[in-house]
Design brief:
Elements (H helix, E strand, L loop, with lengths): L1 H11 L5 E4 L3 H9 L8 E3 L9 H14 L7 E6 H6 L4 H6 L5 E7 L4 H11 L21 H8 L2 E5 L2 H14 L3 E6 L24 H12 L4
Parallel strand pairs: 1-2, 1-3, 3-4, 4-6, 5-6
Length: about 220
């Protein structure tokens, strides 16, 4: 589903739209799959791969293009829900400044699912801990980000289907407000992302024999 959102977002926005993301599954898929056509149109958290970067970075990028005389240039933050919650309060700044053509596309999988995926891939599918947002009975939990966006003064919608994405973005663009588009995406491993190019060497422990065997087979084809 993240890949689907990326494809629809690329269809809708201009080729010079600035795309912003932070650490997580959204970042991993965006950098693998999103096509960039112009220089200086990708902003991402590198180095220590910090979370919480997307919202303030998008606002900064929007102020930058205004200062450069390009007020209509689009800025799009593609952000996971766990990341979004870390700096969600800065939506107030986007509204106070009256920013237009700035979009916060929130891919909501109810947790820090990139870490949950890593836990389950490395240690077994019963080993996810402290990374899924859940009630005590195991039912998934999430704030209503569309309502939060509205409370800040943004245009906001919550959607869950592919065919809803572009119409929602069209309405957001017409609103002339900062926009929050919350999209529900899959949260259960291994359907949370897509196959990735490249190799991230995370060894599997010896006692997980099946995972260790798979790891050893995969690493044979890698040039490290």
């Amino acid at each position: 589903m993240i890949s689907t959102v990326i494809r629809e977002v690329r269809k809708f926005f201009d080729k010079d739209a600035i795309m912003v993301t932070s650490s997580g599954n959204v970042q991993a898929q965006m950098l693998q799959e999103l096509e960039f056509y112009k220089p200086k149109t990708c902003l991402t958290a590198g180095g220590f791969s910090t979370m919480g970067y997307s919202v303030p970075a998008a606002i900064g990028a929007k102020l930058g293009v205004i200062d450069l005389g390009n007020p209509n240039q689009q800025v799009v933050a593609l952000v996971g829900d766990g990341d979004f919650m870390m700096t969600i309060s800065e939506l107030s700044m986007a509204v106070q400044l009256g920013l237009e053509n700035i979009f916060f596309v929130v891919l909501n999988n109810h947790g820090w699912i990139a870490i949950k995926d890593l836990q389950q891939a490395a240690f077994g599918e019963d080993r996810g801990y402290g990374t899924a947002f859940e009630y005590k009975d195991g039912k998934s939990y999430s704030p209503d980000f569309a309502k939060i966006g509205e409370a800040f003064g943004c245009y906001a919608e919550q959607i869950s289907k592919k065919e809803e994405i572009i119409p929602a973005l069209e309405r957001a663009a017409k609103s002339k407000k900062p926009a929050v588009i919350e999209i529900k995406v899959q949260r259960e491993y291994p359907y949370t992302g897509s196959p990735a190019v490249g190799w991230w060497d995370v060894p599997r422990p010896e006692y997980l024999k099946e995972q260790r065997k798979q790891y050893e087979e995969e690493i044979k084809g890698e040039k490290l």
